[in-house]
Recover the amino acids of this structure.
């Protein structure tokens, strides 16, 4: 009986952090609708679990979450495409609290070229 209880507690302890990570990195914090923003990239941090850009949109700083490295490559983004000083247009789901100024990008544009990060969201 004690072994069974220990195994149950261990299993719960191993899955709880994963559930938290999924909740944070899913879409549950977004509105479900899309916004369209154009701005200048101020900072870039690419990598796992996803890339994060800070962009200046008419004097306001927005946090823009792009895809994981594999997703960005699949969309056709190359090394250096997302760089400081680049003008970027993003379409994606904003945080439910718009005061957060945070958006999870579904599609982005560099110049006239479109990059689709989440085709399954269309």
């Amino acid at each position: 009986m004690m072994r069974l209880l220990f195994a149950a507690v261990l299993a719960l302890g191993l899955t709880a952090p994963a559930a938290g990570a999924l909740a944070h990195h899913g879409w549950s914090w977004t509105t479900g609708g899309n916004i369209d923003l154009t701005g200048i990239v101020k900072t870039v941090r690419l990598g796992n679990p996803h890339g994060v850009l800070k962009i200046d949109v008419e004097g306001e700083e927005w946090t823009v979450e792009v895809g994981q490295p594999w997703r960005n490559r699949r969309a056709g983004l190359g090394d250096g495409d997302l760089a400081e000083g680049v003008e970027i247009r993003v379409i994606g789901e904003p945080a439910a609290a718009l005061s957060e100024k945070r958006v999870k990008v579904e599609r982005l544009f560099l110049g006239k070229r479109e990059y689709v990060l989440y085709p399954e969201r269309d």
In short: The longest strand covers residues 35-45. Residues 1-28 form one domain. The chain is about 25% helix and 35% strand. The chain has two domains: 1-28, 31-121.
